[in-house]
Design brief:
Purple Acid Phosphatase, chain A, domain 2, 9 helices, binds manganese (II) ion, six-stranded mixed beta sheet, alpha/beta, 2 domains, 28% helix
């Protein structure tokens, strides 16, 4: 019996633009500890093989501190005699040869892992373990593929694994039917998977951030999901990894199960702007934020819809944000779907009865102040302040994907 652990999409070293340095350090610690659970599990279960299906890192150039920590983990596996097999993912493979090597190569050079690097045809790792001959093929993603390509149809030749009792193929691509319809990237067609019947027993797929298992034709397809959720768009995603128990000889029997990893608590709440009272809007919103808060949580509160202009101007968003920031691990007050309702023609060029974005409202208030300014220096100061404010108005730190 072979025990094999398969994880993917750990995105170590991920950068969140609007987190403070302390928040970012703690968040990266969180990503590391989620991935470490896969290593701890492999050691505790005495797995013989550990496979990572790409995007171990969020980019091709993780910080050295992150690499040292990761090396320690692979050393633990190596010390226990666990074979480690890695491919890069679309995040940690450089987009061009000139941009250097995928960070996984470091672990191959240090003889802590075997890294599959050819994206044009699977290469094979074969080992006899407990009387079972296991062949694992690796096919990392090819950044040069056209967006409408089927990666398996673009290979240099047919997939021909060496003779073995059990044949697994590891890759990092979207599979037909698993991605949002608007996703614009290479997708493995189900027909290409069905054509592998009798050639490949199990297709192990990273990249798709949701745990699931499919059978296409006679081929089992396993997605372990990510080891941690990365964005608010992944609120419903199951995190974890997969463990395969393989019994031979050919035709081998494979039992796969998903192992859950508790993600960092994440919550998203929506406030209809029309529900915000004109009287005491800040205290009202603060009460809601308090009720939704928890110390270890990543919280997003979206305020959406039209808000009366006087209520908008009375609402102290910074105060609301500060309360959210104090009571949560990280707080995002998302106002991208908020508009400001203008009832009557004012002195700032409104037609009356229109809805404008908060950005427009900020810009128009600033332009009104500039128009009323006494000196050219004052105008310059107001314009510079306006541009600075609009620049900082920015995008949320943890975007949807
Ligand atoms: Mn990916």
């Amino acid at each position: 019996m072979i025990t094999l652990v398969f994880a993917a999409d750990s995105h170590l070293n991920k950068h969140y633009a609007r987190m403070t340095p302390d928040q970012l350090a703690a968040r990266r610690e969180r990503l590391r500890s989620a991935w470490k659970e896969t290593v701890d599990f492999a050691l505790a279960q005495r797995a013989q093989v550990y496979v990572h299906g790409g995007d171990l890192f969020d980019g091709p150039n993780p910080r050295t501190a992150e690499l040292i920590w990761t090396t320690d983990q692979f050393q633990r596996l190596a010390d226990a005699g666990v074979a480690v097999l890695l491919i890069g993912g679309n995040h940690d493979i450089p987009k061009s040869r000139l941009a250097g090597a995928t960070p996984q190569r470091l672990f191959d050079t240090a003889r802590l892992a075997h890294v599959f690097t050819d994206p044009t045809a699977p290469t094979w790792w074969v080992r006899d373990i407990g009387g079972i001959r296991l062949a694992v093929g690796g096919l990392p993603p090819d950044p040069r593929l056209a967006r409408d390509a089927d990666p398996l149809a673009e290979l240099a030749g047919p997939i021909t694994p060496p003779p073995a009792d059990c044949v697994l193929l590891v890759t990092h691509y979207a599979v037909e039917g698993t991605l949002h319809p608007s996703a614009d990237e290479p997708v493995i067609r189900k027909a290409s998977i069905a054509a592998l019947e009798g050639v490949v027993d199990y297709l192990l797929v990273g990249h798709v951030h949701t745990a699931r298992e499919l059978t296409v034709g006679g081929v089992k397809v396993l997605f372990p999901g990510p080891t941690e959720r990365l964005t608010f768009g992944e609120l419903d995603v199951r995190c974890g990894f997969a463990v395969l128990k393989i019994d031979g000889p050919r035709p081998c029997r494979i039992a796969a199960r998903h192992v859950h990893i508790d993600p960092q608590p994440m919550r998203r709440e929506t406030v209809r702007a029309t529900d915000i009272p004109a009287d005491g809007p800040t205290a009202w919103l603060v009460d809601r934020v308090r009720a939704w808060s928890a110390p270890d949580q990543i919280l997003q509160v979206r305020v959406e819809g039209p808000l009366r202009r006087d209520t908008y101007q009375a609402l102290r968003f910074l105060e609301v944000w500060q309360v959210g920031q104090d009571l949560n691990f990280y707080f995002d007050l998302d106002r991208h779907l908020l508009s400001v309702e203008v009832d009557s023609p004012g002195d700032l060029g409104y037609a009356g009865g229109e809805r404008v974005s908060p950005r427009m409202e900020i810009a128009r208030v600033a332009d009104g102040l500039a128009a009323a300014a006494a000196t050219a220096a004052e105008v310059d100061l107001i314009v510079a302040a306006r541009d600075l404010v609009l620049d900082h108005y920015g995008a949320p730190a943890i975007e949807d994907t």
